[in-house]
Amino acid sequence: MQYGFNLPTAGDLIAPHALARLATEGEAMGYDSLQISDHVVIPKSIAAKYPYADSGEFPAGARAQRHEQFMEMMFAAAKTKRIRILSSVTVVPHRPAVLTAKMIATMDVLSEGRITWGIGAGWMREEFEALDTEPFDHRGTVTDEYILACKELWTNPNPSFDGKYVKFSNLIFEPKPVQKPIPVWVGGESGPALRRTARLGDGWYPIGTNPEFRLDSLPRYKAGIEKLRGMIAKAGRKPSDVALAYRVSTHGEKLPAKADDGERRLFSGSNQDIIADLRALKELGVVAADFTLVGPDLESSLVAMKRFREDVLNKV
């Protein structure tokens, strides 16, 4: 199993020297990937419900100075040599499809094949409106079409596409990405996200804490995998075509010991409990897990990353 940590795009640690230290020292500690989130702008008033908190409130700490995701991904790639760079996740409809494909292909070439494109359809209507995207209510269809358009540009020497939201032909799109293909990991836990994963994804990359689609206990996560595999078969693909990954937003003693289905809550408790959870996920075929380890202070974040690597990840 491979392990990752979060590289912040917002808050006090987005200065160049702080990001460079987190990326390079995380790589030196043996982490396999770093994760970078995506918001272009944050509206001052948000009526949309945040899907990863019981309260539905967007985290107060996220309403801060912020970098654009792709630019920070390229910065991190330029500062490192080995570690993979994962978008966690790109809100696909926020950027035009051809431009998105070009930026990701450029990042993959210049990083020598280290990009994983984590994707989602988005949840914040107000941000869509600020960016003047295709209509928010069409975001699922737009996301699917943009993914297909990107894959066409990345793989076809004479790319063309005739969709509802994307149309192009007679283009030179070079250089192609180093990776063939660039891995597309689909975030999300809902039915549409699972169907998108089954049809278009190279990996499923959920967060366990979505109150409407909880994956925070082992039985729930197993049920999610089985549901996904049924959809994969229906799409005419094999389970091995879709990797399993898991995003851990919160872990440790601060979490309740039990999920609301009465089962043990994944990644709660002691280091030994977390080691056992990672071993259980590994037995299920999970190939990657990443954790929120970076906090508001640089030195304490580096200490936390090192301790977690030594005390937990190295013992799985």
Protein described:
The chain is an alpha/beta fold and 316 residues long. The chain has helices spanning 16-29, 69-79, 97-110, 125-131, 139-155, 191-200, 218-234, 271-283, 298-311, and strands at residues 2-6, 33-36, 84-87, 90-91, 115-120, 161-162, 167-168, 184-187, 203-205, 243-248, 286-291. It has a single domain (2-315), classed as TIM Barrel (Alpha-Beta Barrel), CATH 3.20.20.30. It contains 9 helices and 11 strands. The model has no long low-confidence stretch (mean pLDDT 96).
Q: What number of structural domains do the residues give?
A: 1
Q: Return the average pLDDT rounded to an integer.
A: 96
Q: Work out the helix count.
A: 9
State the order of secondary-structure elements, H for helix, E for strand.
Answer: EHEHEEHEHHEEEHEHEHEH
